[in-house]
Each structure stands twice: as structure tokens, then as C-alpha cells.
Amino acid sequence: MRWLRAAAARVWRSKGQERSYSGGQGEGPRCTALYDFHRDHGGKMVEFAGWSLPVQYKDSHVASHLHTRQRCSLFDVSHMLQTRIHGKDRVAFIESLVVGDIAELKEDQGTLSLFTNESGGIIDDLIVTNTSDGHLYVVSNAGCAEKDSAHMQNKLQEFRGRDVALDVVDCALLALQGPSTANVLQAGLSDDLSKLSFMTGVTTSVFGISGCRVTRCGYTGEDGVEISVPGSRAVELAERLLQSSEVKLAGLAARDSLRLEAGLCLYGNDIDETTSPVEATLLWTLGKRRRTAMDFPGASVIVPQIKGKVTRKRVGLTSVGPPVRQHAPILNLEGRVIGEVTSGCPSPCLRRNVAMGYVEPEYAKSGTALRLEVRKKMVDGETCKMPFLPSRYYNIK
Fold this sequence. Notes:
By secondary structure, the protein is an alpha+beta fold.
């Protein structure tokens, strides 16, 4: 597995150059409330999206990945931007920015949605939850935090005089992911976790820590939760969860390979402001009412693409030989370049190479044979359906 560990290291060096934490004001990456906790537990810290985060711990990236699939792992995702939107016009406000039908969400139900621009490109992907506490709870990507904040603040100026306000949630965010999650977490909840379906949440106490927001969601394809917890008590919660023999710490490397096996996009790699939801095969994020009304940014570009034509489509890929990486050319069997890889890694569970990329639509059908260029050599590959592994999200039957 040495080649796989080396591959993971290359992935994360390309996404955020590794550097030591300076600790100076205005210098070096920002630290989460768990920074010292990570160091104490052997976390190898790297810079990612302007934050110092563990890429892995004493266990290898592969061991962490497999443990998540078999039991459960704890990830620090406190770098994500958490925002609350208040006021009676909060739904109108968020729907002026995203493609989803937020008005139809039940209390404490959430959905993945997209900030889009007028050209139909994706500014960011985000989760919006309609909480029973009377506000919308929004989680978006750390790498887009400044852009997202400015985007929402600019729109807020257009809503001047209406009843809507924003505030940033000053909390840590922990993700517990894997098939053992429910058993581990239920011991610390008075609420019945079996009544919390995928993409729903609740404000509750977790192991005696009040004011936590627990959302049943994640970025691994497994059952899991994200827990927004006051930063002053984040270490306490992490230590309490680690008391279970089912739980181990996991870092960025495992998070990346897990999400790729699950067929989930990484913003900046697989989607960006030049990518439309239709090209990215994220059409399901567009609410039916919103498509009809065409009242979201970029609708005049995106909606016609649904029944029209696009020049590229996101597909899953498998290949033989050395793993393919971002920007690797995709070619047809005649040797013509027909697309490009956006994410790729060796799959620890499937023990073969998996990737995502964009190809011309006529090559998007699952099972289409292709060639991929890896270090100036050609390897055989083919398109395949995603997710690469069946998702195991929890839904109430």
C-alpha cells in the first residue's frame, strides 16, 4: 500500500501546500478549536483552504478510510462556513441565490443546493436546513467562505428594508461518519436518533453539551452526522466520542478518497463557476417549482440545457495501471482528446483506480471504453455509474 499512501500525500500537497503553523498574527493558516487536540493525537497537519488541518494521524490514510467504511471515524470539519439566516423573508432571500426549492422544506429538513451565477456556473455547493428554531442553517465550503459571505452580503443590500438578517455561527463542526455512528452517538442523546432521517437535523444536547446542532448527513456515502458544537467544548466532545472503541480519528486524505468512492463533488476540482448543474449531473438539485418559474440566478442558461445540449458531462471513470489525477487528458480509442479528469485516486475498498471527469456527451454512457494519459503514457479505462460504492445513508422506512 506504499504507492497508495504516497498518492494521497501528492493529492493533498496539490490542494494546499504543506507548511508548519507559525502561530503569528495574520501569518500562516487559521486553526480550529481542535488544533492542539490534533497535534496531541499525532495528526500530521497541512494547510488546506487557509486552515491547518490533519491530513492523517498515526494510522495510515488507507487504514482510516477502511475504518470509516467498517465502523466510524471522527473528522474535524470546523473550517466549513456556518451561517444562520433569520427573518420572515429568509426563504425569499436564499431562493434568490440558490437553485433549490427551500420553501418546500419541512421543519428541520435540509437539502444540498447550489449558489449559481448569471452565466449558469456554480459559485459553491451548500446545505440549507429549515430549522424549527426559526432560521435557515447554511453550511458551505471553507475554500469559498470569503466569496460566499460577500455574495450573501451583497444580496442582503438588495433586500434592504425587508425582514432578513445573517450571522456567522461561531462553532466547531465535527463529522462522525460510518455504520457505527448511530450506536456511538445514541448513548449521548436524549433524542431518538432512529427518528432522524438523512438530511434532517435537531438542536439538542450531546453528551451533556447543550446547544449542539446535529444533522444526519456527511461526505462519505455512509450513515453519519455533522455536529455543530460550541468551540469551547469541541475538544470535550471529541474526547467523549473517542472513548468508544468504534471511533478513530481521520483526516483530509481519507475524507477525499471516501467522498470520491461515494461519487461526491469537490468544489474547485469537479465543479466551479464555469460548470453548470446540468453538465455536472446535479440536475436533481433544481427544484421543480424553480425550473418552471426560472427565478434563480442563471436560469436562462441552465433550464434550456435540461432538454437541449451541453458540450460535456461529468462521469465516473475506472482505469488500470497507475492512478489518474486531476487534469489528466481523456481520449477516445482513436486518440482524440474528449475530456479531462477532475479528481482521481486508488480506491481502497475496490482496489482499483477510480476518478471523475468531464467528457463529450456521446462518450458519457456507462461502459464506454476510453484511454487516459498518465505521465505521458496511455492507460485503458472506461466510464461507469456513480457512486462507485453503494451509498448507505439512513432513511426511515
